[in-house]
Write a structure and sequence with these properties.
- With 133 residues, the chain is α+β, with helices and mostly antiparallel strands.
- Helix content is 29%, strand content 17%.
- The protein is built from three helices and four strands; from the N terminus they run H-E-E-E-E-H-H.
- It has a four-stranded antiparallel β-sheet, with no helix packed on it.
- Strand 1 and strand 2 (55-61) form a beta hairpin.
- The termini are far apart.
Amino acid sequence: ILTRDVSHRSEGESPLFTEMKSQFSDLHLLLEYKLLGEQQIPGVFMLPSEQTLQEWHGILFLHVGPWKGGVFRFSLLIPDGYPQTRPIVRFRGDVYHPYIHQKNGQLNMLRILPIWDPKRSHLYHIVSAIREA
């Protein structure tokens, strides 16, 4: 069962409103996942976590370029404020790339996707930009 922590509701929000907001958010993320699948980005496979829709696990297979033959695992962490707040991407293991922090594996989103428009940007834009970086 996928869950979302709704214990951090704003003061004055009713529990029903908080739950409806959470369900709307989950629906939005499911639609984003469907849209990602329709894009068919070559060499990238993504699945939402079993625990929450706010964390997706990905694997990237590279067939050309300096990282040819590389297989890279990463997580896409979607904050509560999405889409106004940009998601975070963290790679697992040692990845030597100028846009990836060597200690925590976090991808510098401003370098790969400098413009983030909450009304026009989608999660597949991030995944596509990861592949191109």
